[in-house]
Design goal:
Blueprint: H1 8-33, E1 43-51, E2 60-64, E3 71-73, E4 79-87, E5 92-96, E6 108-113, E7 120-127
Antiparallel strand pairs: 1-2, 1-6, 2-3, 3-4, 4-5, 4-7, 6-7
């Protein structure tokens, strides 16, 4: 009677796959928890008068590495991605992501005052 042994390489594949999955899940979680700009400073904003699907907060504070990028809510792990921006003070459309106004995603709309110029902005985007 002959007994076959599995080659050691075959046993390593599941271990490597599991380790890769762990690293893939752990690295983004760390990056999302503590955003920081190139010099360690973040842009901060207060969003208020928010409307959207059930569960949308009426206001929140958020930080971003760069104005206009993804905003990390300071009291949760959620991210607010602004896709349409309108300067209500200057009555000017600042940004419109092509196609977003036709997408069937639950949108959140909030207002925010920009610290650098004091203008009131209405921002529509996605809260994930």
């Amino acid at each position: 009677m002959r007994i076959f042994k599995k080659p050691r390489i075959a046993l390593r594949k599941p271990f490597i796959a599991a380790a890769s999955l762990f690293v893939a899940l752990a690295v983004p979680a760390t990056a999302l928890a503590e955003p920081g700009g190139p010099d360690g400073a973040n842009v901060q904003a207060h969003f208020f008068d928010c409307t959207g699907p059930v569960g949308t907060p009426t206001s929140f504070d958020a930080e971003s590495q760069k104005a206009g990028a993804a905003w990390h809510l300071t009291d949760s792990r959620q991210i607010f991605i602004g896709l349409i921006g309108f300067d209500e003070t200057a009555n000017t459309l600042v940004i419109l992501t092509p196609g977003f106004e036709r997408n069937a995603v639950p949108a959140v709309t909030c207002r925010s005052v920009r610290a650098s110029n004091g203008h009131l902005y209405r921002v529509t985007g996605v809260l994930t």
